[in-house]
Write a structure and sequence with these properties.
16 helices; rod-shaped; 0% strand; 448 residues; mainly alpha
């Protein structure tokens, strides 16, 4: 019974090294993780795996593309053991880069244009491979689309200056992402500065006294002064000029009632009210006053002025202005010319008349001589004398020369005292007519 027990102890002693040593050999032959240094295993040059890992991590820290998370994790690993170094390189580096890349994706999303935002959102919702592809290529393609849209928007702005417009059109003609980005980052600021100075010069040329002074100061200063003038200074200076102009309008004695009231109301308001009065309200209230003035002219003017004024009031605003500028003067000149003409017309002279006395009585109206029917004949002096003798009852008595007409009440030689001048004149007209008839008949008999 003792022999079998001793044999079992001996067998156990013999088998123990065979069980233990093969396990150690297998452990020594198993492949080690890459970059993980074995316990105190060295090389011929004395460089350990820990030294290699440490150098690799320091290289990662020196890379400018390394993000915040990668740097922080790398610094923690360098402060730890060899196992910490190896753990960072195998696991921690990847996790930190994922975090940094997602942060970059959100940063780009926050500042990007419409196309970039859309691409960034898609990448952040996808896999890490999608995010890496967006950071390497996708963001630049999307940004080129946004750059083109931004340049087109700038060119469509009517306030865009000449320099910006020309260089922007040139960038669009090239069309590459680099050309578009170069315009927005380099050319645009430069051309914008030049165009802004040109704009200040234009405002100076057209502005009032206060605007001219402020614009000159801006052009003499820095570009920041130019920008400040365009954004704020020009409006403050223009408000000063507007106020001065409106005060002059209100003080002008030729300003109408409606215009003066509106001007005073504007002076009580702000800068926007001053500008609104000059740009929109002034023309309307002045036209109202112009129509009132034309109505007053129509009431007090002459016939031509009244006619022209009423015609202007029936027309549009241009007709009213035309009347006040030149129509009123022309119509007034017409009325003055009519007033200068003589008010009485001279009595028409007969084409054929008989011999009349050279003097007419001053206390009687002038009678127009009668005309005889054709043929016309002129009475001879002999016939007139015969008529005179007939009317003086054959006595031939006259008072004065043969050319002097007998005065009223001087027919004593005829025996008709107080007969009157009218009776004598009538008798003379009848006798003259008879003489003319006789002469006419004599001429026809001679012709026959």
């Amino acid at each position: 019974m003792k022999l079998p027990r001793v044999s079992a102890v001996v067998a156990a002693a013999v088998l123990t090294p065979a069980v233990l040593f093969p396990s150690s050999a297998l452990a020594a032959d198993a492949p080690q993780p890459t970059g993980v240094s074995g316990p105190d295993t060295g090389s011929e040059g004395g460089t350990t795996q820990e030294d290699l890992d440490r150098a690799e991590i320091q290289k990662i820290l020196a890379d400018k593309e390394s993000g915040v998370s990668v740097r922080e994790a790398a610094e923690r690993a360098l402060a730890g053991t060899a196992a910490d170094l190896r753990r960072f390189l195998e696991v921690g580096l990847h996790d930190a880069r994922v975090t940094d890349d997602r942060v970059k994706g959100f940063q780009i999303l926050a500042v990007g244009g419409p196309a970039v935002k859309k691409a960034a959102e898609a990448a952040l919702r996808g896999t890490y491979a999608d995010l890496v592809a967006f950071l390497k290529e996708g963001q630049y393609t999307a940004r080129a689309q946004d750059d083109r849209a931004e340049i087109e928007r700038i060119l469509a702005d009517p306030e865009t200056g000449r320099g910006v417009r020309e260089t922007g059109q040139a960038a669009l003609a090239v069309g590459t992402p680099a050309a578009l980005r170069h315009f927005l980052e380099v050319e645009l600021p430069k051309q914008q500065a030049d165009d802004d100075r040109v704009e200040v010069a234009r405002i100076l040329f057209k502005g009032g006294p206060a605007v001219k002074e402020a614009a000159s100061a801006a052009l003499s200063g820095t570009y920041a002064d130019v920008v400040k003038f365009l954004k704020e200074g020009q409006y403050a200076a223009r408000a000063e000029d507007d106020r001065a102009e409106i005060e002059a309008i209100a003080a002008d004695p030729q300003t109408g009632r409606h215009t003066r009231e509106a001007a005073r109301k504007a002076l009580a308001g702000d800068a926007a009210g001053l500008r609104r009065f000059l740009e929109t309200e002034l023309a309307a209230v002045r036209m109202s006053d112009n129509r009132v003035k034309v109505s007053q002219i129509a009431e007090s003017g002459g016939p031509a002025v009244r006619k022209a004024a009423l015609a202007a009031l029936e027309g549009n605003d241009q007709a009213v202005l035309a009347f006040l500028e030149h129509g009123w003067a022309a119509a007034r000149a017409e009325d003055e010319a009519d007033a200068a003409k003589p008010t009485t017309q001279p009595a028409p002279q007969p084409s054929q008349s008989t011999t009349q006395p050279s003097a007419q009585p001053t206390d009687r109206p002038t009678e127009q001589p009668r005309t005889t029917p054709a043929p016309q004949a002129t009475a001879t002096p002999q016939a007139v004398q015969a008529v005179a003798r007939t009317t003086t009852n054959g006595t031939g008595g006259t008072n004065g020369t043969a050319d002097a007409a007998p005065r009223s009440g001087q027919l004593a030689a005829t025996g008709a005292e107080g007969l009157g001048w009218e009776a004598g004149a009538a008798a003379a007209a009848v006798a003259a007519g008879a003489a003319l008839v006789a002469v006419s008949r004599r001429r026809r008999s001679t012709e026959d």
